[in-house]
Amino acid sequence: MIKPELEVWVWANCDEIAPFMGWGDHGRDLRCWLETKGFRPSDHPKPAHPKEALDAVLREKRKKRSSRHFEYLATHLNFKGCVDEAFHEFRRIIQLWFPAEQS
């Protein structure tokens, strides 16, 4: 098990994921919803339980969890906003195991 959960990278920037998740053009609405539902304390940049928060957001917007969501997020999110060291270590290892193809 990865600690914290791998889904922590999804929350690197609410402004980037909000439109895709069905929350309009600004992450502010999504952040407020996460706070009111108890997933994200107002003084924290990310939910304390990222996987549960993601599942709740998908349920709220009546979206099913799918690999297409993660593919979209992986290709469109800027990972520079993710400050989680465990995620960056995981990402570094994956990049060593599966180097990008060079043309």
Task: Describe, in plain words, how this protein is organized in 3D.
The chain is mostly helical. The chain has helices at residues 14-21, 27-36, 50-60, 67-76, 85-97. The longest helix has 13 residues, at 85-97. It is globular. The chain starts with 13 loop residues before the first helix and ends in a 6-residue tail after the last helix.
Biggest beta sheet summary = none
- Taking all residues together, what is the mean pLDDT? 81
DSSP strand tally: 0
- Which parts are unreliable, with pLDDT below 50 for 5 consecutive residues or more? none
In short:
Helix content is 50%, strand content 0%.
Protein topology:
Blueprint: H1 14-21, H2 27-36, H3 50-60, H4 67-76, H5 85-97
Helix pairs in contact: 1-2
Please describe the structure with a list of short key phrases separated by commas or semicolons.
103 residues, mainly alpha
